[in-house]
Amino acid sequence: MANVIMASSKTQIPVSSSLPTPIPKPSPIPQLSLPKPKVLSIPSSSVALKSVSVIGAAAPLLLAPLPALAVEIEKAALFDFNLTLPIVMGEFLLLMFALDKVYFSPLGKFMDERDAAIKEKLSSVKDTSQEVKQLEEQAAAIMKAARAEISAALNKMKKETQAEVEEKLREGRKKVEAELQEALANLERQKEETVKALDSQIAALSQDIVKKVLPVE
Amino acid sequence: MNVLSCSTNTLKGLYDISGVEVGQHFYWQIGGFQVHGQVLITSWVVIAILLGSASIAVRNPQTIPNAGQNFFEYVLEFIRDVSKTQIGEEYGPWVPFIGTMFLFIFVSNWSGALLPWKIIQLPHGELAAPTNDINTTVALALLTSVAYFYAGLSKKGLSYFSKYIQPTPILLPINILEDFTKPLSLSFRLFGNILADELVVVVLVSLVPLVVPIPVMFLGLFTSGIQALIFATLAAAYIGESMEGHH
To answer: What angle do CA B217, B221, B223 make, to 5 degrees?
Structure first.
């Protein structure tokens, strides 16, 4: 079994060692020396060239390595540089410009603008604190004015009622006074009348008294 | 001998079922040059997915975003965050580069894990993640190198090169070496991770087709995302490093 393993590793070594050579060299093993251009020009060559390579290196350790299988092994061209490289470069650059046009620039600009708008809105919200203060002042002024108006109205009303009351009071007093005056005047007149009447009676009475005191001669 | 040929048939059958193909390419011929057709096909699909989803989601942006737009805004903020932390305040112009790097690698990696590429049969080779091919990763790494050189030169002019002798001139060779190791490590890290991830999944599926590969698949998804993030972060870090003032 050890022999088998040794043998398998020996057959595999040239395959793996020939991997990194990009330039097709005539390989030391005749079965493997398929010159690459030929393979390329005849892609559907008679044998279906299924590669074995890495798993091919692992699996034959379990089974017996056979020369028949080696024919099937094609040289693996892992490090095969060719025109693909510059083409991929060009594709990448084109993709970069296209993605920049389609994706990075427009969406980035849009996001930046949105950020700026949000920030502006935020700062404007902060500014409204001043507006709120102004509004509060306005409200306070209105309240003050309303209060002043109310107190003024109250004062006015008070004054009016007072004046009315006083007027009525004065009127009443005047009436009373007038009545009193009238009553006094009446009284005076009656007194005078009485005095007058008494005066005339006094004259008659005094004559009577004189007649009575002084005997008639 | 009979047993041996029988086992060979079994083995061949196993390979056919598991379909492990490493380093096999579907070659196209373009003007005398060869290209890896499977890489181009999958990269076109990735590009189509990216552009299509982005343009649909961002077509008509709303102030209060809907689900798709929200997701893309989240991704953009993530990319901006990565570039800002690595590059600094002047990250703006580099967002497209870093973002495309991240998104392209991320969608490529996940497409290799999630999209059933294997259903589509190619004459040769097979469809897999574009980052599964060394050409793609080296292309991206070289672009990163070009990007950080461009960033440094446009920011500081020729005095950018004074960073090579910055702490002391003795470090000049190491500083020059860094310019080669940076793209090398970037490309090989990504390539190796994605290739190894897909191989592990394929090998496990071929050995135990049920249940067992599932945790490894999830691990693969995780690694793919991490690799994309690492690539983009390192690219941004290199750009930021070449732009920062030396003190």
So the answer is: 110
For an interface test with B, give the residue of A38, A69, A85, A94 to mutate (most B CBs within 10 A).
A85
In a domain, B20, yes or no: no
CB contact under 8 A, A55 and B15: yes
Answer yes or no: is B144 within a domain. yes
Q: How far is CA A144 from CA A137, A155, A156, B10, B108, in A?
A: 10, 16, 18, 104, 75
- Assess if residue B26 is contained within a domain: no
Residue B54 lies in a domain: yes
Domain span at residue B107 reads: 35-243
Q: Residues of B with CB below 8 A from A106's CB?
A: 58, 61
For B17-38, what is each residue's pLDDT tens digit? 555 566 677 778 888 888 888 8
Domain total for chain B? 1
pLDDT in tens, B36-57: 888 888 899 999 998 999 888 8
How many Cβ pairs within 8 Å bridge chains A and B?
176
The predicted structure's pLDDT at residue B6: 57
Cα B246 from chain centroid?
31
Q: What is the pLDDT of residues B226-237, one digit of tens each?
A: 999 999 999 999
The verdict on a CB contact (< 8 Å) between B54 and A53 is no
Specify the pTM. Answer: 0.64
